[in-house]
Write a structure and sequence with these properties.
The complex is a heterotrimer of chains A (298), B (387) and C (338). With 298 residues, chain A is an all-alpha fold. Chain A has a domain at 99-252: Orthogonal Bundle (MetI-like fold), CATH 1.10.3720. Helices cover 66% and strands 0% of the residues of chain A. Chain A starts with 34 loop residues before the first helix and ends in a 5-residue tail after the last helix. Chain B has helices at residues 35-41, 73-80, 104-109, 127-138, 146-156, 173-185, 203-220, 231-237, 255-260, 265-273, 316-320, and strands at 21-32, 45-57, 62-66, 88-93, 96-97, 110-113, 191-195, 223-228, 240-245, 248-254, 326-327, 335-336. Chain B has a domain at 21-246: Rossmann fold, CATH 3.40.50. Chain B has an 8-stranded mixed beta sheet, with helices on both faces. In chain B, strand 7 (191-195), helix 7 and strand 8 (223-228) form a beta-alpha-beta unit. Helix content of chain B is 26%, strand content 18%. Chain C is α/β, with parallel strands linked by helices and 338 residues long. In chain C, helix 4 (114-126) packs parallel to helix 7. The chains are: A mainly alpha (298), B alpha/beta (387), C alpha/beta (338). Chains A and B meet through helix 7 and helix 8 of A and helix 3, helix 4 and helix 6 of B.
Chain lengths: 298, 387, 338
């Protein structure tokens, strides 16, 4: 057993002790001192600011075409020039970022919720429920992610709704596996037995006692999942299966700009860079969180 | 099949009323190995953790359930508290059989304190949240009084009201056990089952928790079932002791009788094996350990008496007949499951190998009396502390 | 602490071990001195955080990476182990000192046959051939009471019970005939009846082959079953040393007294157990003066300020308590009251 560092007390009447002041569940421990986490957070904040304040940062409408002004290079009027239909690239970049981020964050939410719920049920109850859920998981996992997503969107028709549906149907399995694994371990802890002994219902035990203790792994995974979803949307856009034009979308921008790579490289490169930076920031956050959460697992 | 005889329900409370808790023929087993494979091969192996236990607990009594690993004592406790489903057997509370799925009210009656103070409290809940939840779910007191009630409970176990806002990690092991006891008491149970409550604590802290359990018993009239492998702890706290070995009870007796006059060879061996402060290292004439060999695998139990493979006085009859719990002369409440526990069995005996704490065999008539517990190896040259 | 006049096998002098931790430097072992003679079993007793395990690991040189010996000497047959580089220490570990641990399942390699693990030492340190080492392993298994050793040689650790695994560990520890075996709570995780067997086995080994032991435990009565001398540790320091029956039955330090009084003893039923109030000291900023003073019932002014090294008492024992007579008086009062 490790040494306890509880402060020594003067011999009181044997029975009364004073615990130190409550400091909250020890989850966020000086997060700003972790370089990875700090870097990621700053980067993400910048990106989010760019996306949220898009209307302020660019006065141009990203959809408005101006066929007299196509394929202009960067200038004082158009920071990144215009694309092949005369639309301001910078504005499209910002609004594209905005759309894609929004879709990605939302697209993570439903799989997260569904996966956590199904994973908890599976892990806690075991038995045939577990078997059924896990076999479904196995089936979904057997296919490469992109193959499934593209196939589903193709079937459902391109558009935002299809993207949400496709990603939700496929994405929940990872969360389910993670949570199930954590719950399998956590449910052996005595505090679960104690809760059962206290006559608490299974739902209550799962929701209030188990899930909060294991959710951190799912949150960590969600960080990388957002990145994956952004890439998926971008890929779908690249294949023409993403958000339909004229709505700006980083993937279709990359695709469209390909044709002009030698002359107007900024049309492809900057959307590409945006994707990379978003991915980087989320990865940094994920790494930083992992370092904090794991050793200090309260 | 239990080994309980007609007199195995030895418990009646002091005033002769029927016991508070009565367990009849309880068996709990676990399927071993892959169930799918077993279904295919059509042979499932079972580990009989608890294999036919009858036990009564009187109201207000402190009963100890003692045994080593594999004895089934913890499994029994979990089944008693409604946390494991037994395969067989009845548990009666005040004469009423408890159903397999207990109602909320019944679940409250028997509460448990667990061994590991570091995993038995939810790390994300403050003590106050945890207690309030239980009070709310069971409507113990009206919501307005919940906080007051919690603080009373915490004071009762020796923690200040500040503990309400604290998280488990801010407490030491001994304090956590007190929180666990408070949690059990908040539901106003009739029976408290404590599964090795002090084994994971430092020695100097164990006393605090043990004293607390003793005080609570007296103040609240609590009925206590104490599970322990440490007979010293048991002697200090309990009125009666039941010794388990490989899923069965092998001896039950009032505490002092068990220590001064153990009847089952396993109990004698257990007592002799306990390290004693006044002992000395064994010399060249040492007679060997109190109990030899390893316990048999619970999956392959010996035929007949389960202890015979390690028993210094094992005889052929021990393989032929599994001994039942029998009582000696008079109603002393002392039972043991051994053919030679109380003598009177006339079967020619082989002289047993000498082992501490065991009487020598009388030729012919069977063991009549067991020698009182003797010390390991000779006296020390120092005066003993007063007894 | 000195034993009989034969020259000691191991001498630890003023050992200091410190651990670099996030919240400060932990003074895990703070000035511990010990001597172990040939064939002697010395008990090292303390609760969690007392520094007893760290002391053992420092002797063997297997401290965790954050821990370091900051000063002191460890003399094995006159050679200072602290100054030896790791490769030189490797030649000593096995042939001269070995160690047995609390959890045999983690101390034994789960994917290596038991016999090979026992045979490894002689092969590496003594250049035995495979066959000769196997023979020695079987002989050792027999010696430590493992039945059917020829067959069990090829078994894996998980096929053994806890007690048997401990015997395997003891066999490994004995395999190169060391002079001293360090035991880190080897019986704590075992059932009482098995503990009894293992303790007797160790006592027999001490007697018959003259190997010395340092036996670390938090369980006072266990020390009585095996050791001739005992040292009690608290907060990284030694607080009392002496012959076992003297220290346990007639202590001269309030902490030892507290340990004895707070532990239920199967032979004596006390009216109530007297716990030691308070909690173990912080090893980062320990109390000034005597480390036990915040919890001591006999505390006086000088206890809070004066350093408390071990001082010799008549009759080959020592105590760190400035007012040990108070402990003596308390004991006398215990004896008068029934």
């Amino acid at each position: 057993m490790s040494a306890t560092t509880f402060p020594s007390e003067a011999p009181p009447p044997e029975f009364v002790t004073e615990p130190e002041a409550a400091a909250g569940p020890r989850r966020v421990r000086r997060w700003y001192t972790q370089p990875a986490l700090l870097g990621g957070v700053i980067l993400l904040a910048l990106i989010l600011a760019a996306a949220i304040f898009a209307p302020l940062l660019s006065s141009y409408n990203p959809i408005t075409q101006n066929l007299t002004n196509t394929l202009q290079g960067p200038s004082a009027h158009h920071l990144l020039g215009t694309d092949q239909l005369g639309r301001d690239t910078f504005a499209r970049l910002l609004y594209g970022l905005r759309n894609d981020l929004r879709i990605a964050f939302i697209a993570v939410l439903l799989p997260f919720l569904i996966g956590v719920v199904l994973g908890s049920i599976s892990g806690y109850f075991g038995g045939w429920v577990d078997t059924v859920i896990m076999r479904i998981v196995d089936i979904v996992v057997a296919f490469p992610f992109y193959v499934l997503v593209i196939a589903l969107v193709f079937v459902l028709g391109p558009g935002q709704r299809s993207i949400y549906i496709a990603i939700t149907l496929i994405g929940w399995v990872s969360y389910a596996r993670i949570i199930r694994g954590e719950i399998l371990v956590a449910k052996r802890q005595d505090y679960v037995l104690a809760a059962q002994s206290g006559g608490l219902s299974s739902v209550r035990i799962m929701a209030r006692h188990l899930v909060p203790n294991v959710i951190s792994q799912a949150i960590l995974y969600a960080m990388s999942d957002i990145v994956q979803d952004i890439l998926a949307i971008v890929t779908l856009g690249y294949f023409g299966l993403g958000v339909p034009p004229p709505t700006p979308d980083l993937g279709s921008m990359i695709n469209d700009g390909q044709n002009f790579l030698t002359t107007h490289w900024q049309l492809t490169t900057f959307p590409g860079l945006a994707v990379v930076i978003v991915g980087l920031s989320l990865s940094l956050i994920g790494d930083g969180l992992a370092d904090i959460i794991r050793p200090g697992q309260a | 099949m239990t080994n309980g005889g007609p007199t195995s329900h030895a418990a009646t409370s002091q005033d002769g009323t029927s016991p508070l808790l009565s367990v009849d023929g309880m068996a709990v087993s676990f399927a071993v190995g892959s169930r799918l494979a077993a279904r295919i091969k059509n042979e499932q192996r079972f580990l009989h953790a608890v294999d036919g236990v009858d036990l009564d607990i009187a109201k207000g009594e402190a009963l100890a359930l003692v045994g080593e690993s594999g004895s089934g004592k913890s499994t029994f406790a979990l089944a008693l508290a409604g946390l494991r489903q037994p395969d067989r057997g009845e548990i009666k509370f005040s004469g009423r059989t408890l159903p397999r799925n207990r109602s909320s009210a019944d679940q409250r009656r028997i509460q448990m304190v667990f061994q590991d103070p570091y995993s038995s409290l939810n790390p994300r809940l403050t003590v106050g949240s945890m207690l309030r939840e239980l009070i709310r779910v069971h409507h113990i007191v009206p919501p307005g009084q919940a906080d007051e009630y919690c603080k009373e409970m915490l004071t009762l176990v020796g923690l200040g009201p500040d503990a309400m806002k604290a998280f488990p990690r801010q407490f030491s092991g001994g304090q956590r056990q007190r929180v666990a006891i408070a949690r059990a008491l908040v539901l106003r149970p009739d029976v408290l089952v404590a599964d090795e409550p002090v084994s994971a604590l430092d020695v100097s802290v164990q006393a605090t928790v043990l004293n607390l359990l003793g005080d609570l018993r007296r103040e609240l009239g609590l009925t206590l079932l104490l599970i322990s492998h440490n007979l010293a702890v048991v002697r200090h706290l309990c009125d009666r002791v039941a010794v388990m070995y490989l899923g069965r009870i092998v001896e039950v007796a009032p505490t002092e009788q068990l220590f001064s006059d153990p009847r089952h060879p396993y109990t004698k061996g257990l007592l002799a094996a306990i390290p004693k402060l006044a002992a000395s290292p064994p010399g060249p004439d040492d007679q060997g350990p109190a109990v030899v060999g390893d316990p048999p695998s619970p999956l392959r139990l010996p035929v007949g008496c389960r202890f015979r493979t390690r028993c210094p006085i094992a005889q052929p009859i021990c393989e032929e007949q599994d001994p039942m719990l029998t009582t000696g002369a008079g109603d002393t409440g002392h039972e043991a499951a051994c053919h030679f526990a109380f003598g009177g069995y006339s079967h020619p005996l082989r002289p047993p190998p000498t082992t501490q704490g065991n009487s020598g065999a009388g030729a012919g008539a069977g063991v009549t009396d067991s020698a009182p517990l003797t010390d390991a190896a000779g006296a020390t040259s120092f005066p003993q502390q007063g007894d | 602490m000195t034993g009989p006049l034969d020259s000691p096998v191991l001498q630890v002098r003023d050992l200091h071990v410190q651990i670099a931790a996030r919240h400060g430097t932990v003074r895990a072992v703070d000035g511990v001195s010990l001597e172990v003679n040939k064939g002697e079993a010395v008990g090292l007793v303390g609760e969690s955080g007392s520094g007893k395990s760290m002391t053992l690991r420092a002797i063997l040189g297997v401290l965790p990476p954050e821990a370091k010996i900051t000063s002191g000497e460890i003399l094995l047959d006159g050679v200072d182990l602290v100054k030896l580089p790791n490769h030189a220490l490797n030649e000593i570990r096995g042939p001269k000192i070995s160690m047995i641990f609390q959890e045999p399942m983690s101390a034994l390699n789960p994917v290596m046959r038991v016999g090979y693990q026992i045979a490894e030492g002689p092969r590496v340190h003594r250049g035995y051939s495979k066959a000769k080492a196997a023979e020695r392993a079987i002989e050792l298994m027999r010696r430590v009471g493992i039945p059917d050793p020829e067959r069990r040689f090829r078994a894996y650790p998980h096929e053994f019970s806890g007690g048997m695994r401990q015997r395997v560990m003891i066999a490994i520890a004995l395999s190169c005939d060391p002079e001293i075996i360090l035991c880190d709570e080897p019986t704590t995780a075992l059932d009482v009846t098995i503990q009894d067997q293992i303790l007797r086995l160790l006592a027999e080994l001490c007697r018959d082959s003259g190997v010395s032991l340092i036996f670390v435990t938090h369980d006072l009565p266990v020390v009585a079953q095996l050791c001739q001398r005992v040292a009690v540790m608290y907060g990284g320091e030694l607080v009392e040393t002496g012959a076992v029956h003297e220290v346990l039955l007639d202590p001269r330090h309030p902490y030892t007294l507290g340990l004895v009084r707070s532990a239920p003893d199967v032979e004596h039923v006390r009216e109530s157990l007297v716990p030691i109030p308070g909690s173990p000291p912080s090893l980062v900023s320990p109390p000034s003066g005597c480390r036990f003073h915040p919890r001591c019932a006999f505390v006086e002014e000088d206890c809070r300020v004066q350093p408390t090294p071990l001082r010799q008492l008549p009759g080959n024992r020592a105590t760190a308590c400035l007012h040990y007579e108070r402990t003596e008086e308390a004991l006398a009062a215990d004896r008068i009251a029934p």
